[in-house]
Write a structure and sequence with these properties.
68% helix, 185 residues
Length: 185
Amino acid sequence: MFDQLYIKWLRFLDMVNSVGFLQSFFDNRFYLILLVVILVHLNRATYKSMFLCALINMPGTILHETMHFLVGLLLNAKPRDFTIFPRRNENGYVMGSVGFTNITFYNAVPSSLAPLLLLPIGFYLNRYFLPNMNPTVTNYILYVLLQTIIIENAMPSSADFKVAKMYFLGIVMYAAIGIGLFVML
């Protein structure tokens, strides 16, 4: 009985990893959207349990908070209290945080919006890594999982936006720099 199941499993794997199936799988955006919706649904389902929520969100939390830390360190915001362990607050869970001891007009906006720098990383992976991957269903699912984690955690939190909004001069300064760069290009 187990031999028959094993043989059926091997046939299934052969079919799933066949060139024709893989080509249709990779070229069909429906499967991509379906995988993302399933991953988002699974992620939301974990919010009822602190342990599951932390486990599922840990890789993204590490990426998100590391971006805050690195940009803060680079711009002399003096990061401290780096934590990736979730805690409950009045609005739900805080997945992680980084405190700063030297937030000023020139480093508040980039330090608080630093997770946006994950978007170019996701773009790079899509542009240069995906085409070189061995085309298997497993690799594709892992790729979609990785991209979902990167893109979802590239979004600054409401607390991040609050910090950025507190420094109007920094917003004006970076808007002027952005407009200047846009005009020069």
